[in-house]
Amino acid sequence: HDPGEEEEEQEEEKEEKEEELRDFLLVYNRMTELCFRRCVSDLGYRLLSQREERCLDGCAGKLIRANHRLMGAYVALMPSIVQRRAARLEDGTERTAPDEAEAARAAPDSSAAGPSGT
User: Can you tell me the distance from the alpha carbon of 65 to that of 44, in angstroms, rounded to the nearest whole number?
Assistant: First the structure.
């Protein structure tokens, strides 16, 4: 490696890590907002009530489990999506839009667990 290539690789790695952190924080902030709105009803007290704590624990746990299931489906589907994109590139028919809709259609039905989650 010449120093220029190594520096470029380090910069790309840094940007990738920053993007991962940004994505994580977006998910975390959205989860926090959803659970807060759903579970916290009385802002007149400094501490959470037992009911609010139970609700928040359940809400956060449910969202984390759902996120893990979605990530598992995404990881399982990724090789076939990459393979199809590569085939399209070879054929010259690659679309400019990502195949997210395709992945969503192929993902296992997560609604089968019902409204209460797992």
Answer: 31
Q: What percent of the chain has pLDDT over 90?
A: 43
Question: Which pTM was predicted?
Answer: 0.54
- Tell me the CB-side half-sphere exposure of residue 31, using CA atoms within 13 A: 18
- CA dist 112 and 93 (Å) reads 35
Task: Write down all domains in the chain, each with its CATH number in brackets.
Answer: 3-109 (1.10.287.810)
Residue 100 pLDDT > 90:
no
Cα dihedral 79, 80, 82, 87 sign? positive
Residue 73: CB atoms within 10 Å: 16
Distance CA 25, CA 28 (A): 5
The candidate with the shortest Cα–Cα distance to 62, out of 73, 72, 51, 70, is: 70
